[in-house]
Amino acid sequence: MDNLHHIVVVGGGAGGLELVTSLGNKLGKKRKARITLVDAGLTHVWKPLLHEVASGSLDASANEINYRAHARKHHYEFQLGRMSGLDRQNKHVVIAPFHDLDGTEVVPERHIPYDTLVIAVGSTANDFGTPGAQDNCLFLDSLDQARRFHNLMLNAFLRKNHEAFQGAEHTLNISIIGAGATGVELAAELRLASRELPVYGMNHLQPSDVSITVIEAADRILPALPGRLSAAATKELEHQRVKVLTGQPVNEVRPTSVVMKDGTELSSEMTIWAAGIKAPAFLAELEGLEVNRGNQLVVEQTLQTTQDSDIFAFGDCAACPQPDSDRPVPPRAQAAHQQADTLFKTLCNRLDNGEAVPFVYNDHGSLINFSRYTTVGNLMGNLSGRSMYVEGKVARMFYLSLYRMHQVALHGMFRTGIIWLMDKISRAMQPRLKLH
């Protein structure tokens, strides 16, 4: 194994895990290369589903993938740890010491050698330095944060239900800062939770007692998507009795309120930050690699970093140019999926001294899911290049297919079919909302 070309992929998100799965099945299985995945967690959950984990609509334990088990099935190695540095001269990835929950060091700092390095560490929320955001907001960047949110939400509902029973003031004010896809979909999921939890015993609290507000600095929600889709999403949120505030930049976040730029103060006992993203800060400190203001690694169209042809980056942590455009590839799950496919071809070619494949992004459209209520979106026609507006059951079908496509990439068609069947059985036997 030591003589094999060693490909190290840092980050087991949607793109990173799909890439090592393909490389393991193609190269690792035939012992043409050694493939290693490095991630700070032991399991993978598709990031676009974290808002469903947070609200309880999705049971993460039934949908997460254990890296070690997956690595064994797909012929790659897994290393638990967080990347903290890079030794380009010796071609080593530096992995920070791993500590137990009580702070005891389990594994010291390690150096993993590589021949080809791929960085796919995703992104985190960008609070733009807003005072109080880090201390008083909840974030949904990781599975741990989503699970913490879920526990806090259940406790908040329980507390308000008890206050209602006592005849005290019991309105629960929830604010979501940022009306991109995550913020809008989370608002719908929280509204569903406010209607489902009374069914499971919290019957003193009514859905009308839960006030949900979405706050967006731009003049409309979903500002990066077409206006028609934004208008349809606004209409649906208002139909679900979610307040929509646009053109309202947040100036400060306090423990129990949100202060707008114009001085307006909104009561908020749970505040979620879902506005903006940035790449992890440690990328800006890596030896000699070029980054932009958002900490993204600047790459060529081949996904190779501008300063080192042996280091690739893709997904949310990379700024990849596109022909005939002054904007990089947008940080979306479909972009990471497409980049993983392109990079797989490049890395296979690389072993045979072949050329790198330039990445060209194909926008297939956008879908916004309003929990179990409805789905709206636009799909791009491959032949005409024009978008088609869809909603309702048809849009919902396309939305669900995105996750199934991710599962097919990780497990194959047959196993994904079994997973789909198990999901159906689980929904029939389990509560409609995760209650613990």
Keywords:
single chain, FAD/NAD(P)-binding domain, NADH dehydrogenase, NADH-Q_oxidoreductase
Named CATH topology of the largest domain: FAD/NAD(P)-binding domain
Uncertain parts: none
Outline type: globular
Q: Roughly how many Å apart are the termini?
A: 45 Å
Q: How many domains make up the coordinates?
A: 3
Adjacency order of strands in the biggest sheet: 5-2-1-11-23-22
- Using the CA coordinates, give the radius of gyration: 22 Å
Structural class: alpha/beta
Q: Roughly what percent helix? A: 25-40%
> Number of helix segments?
11
The strand count comes to: 27
Profile the largest sheet. Answer: 6 strands, mixed
CATH 2nd-level architecture of the largest domain: 3-Layer(bba) Sandwich
- Name given to the CATH homologous superfamily of the largest domain: FAD/NAD(P)-binding domain
Mean pLDDT across all amino acids: 92
Percent strand equals: 25-35%
Q: Any idea of the CATH class of the largest domain? A: Alpha Beta
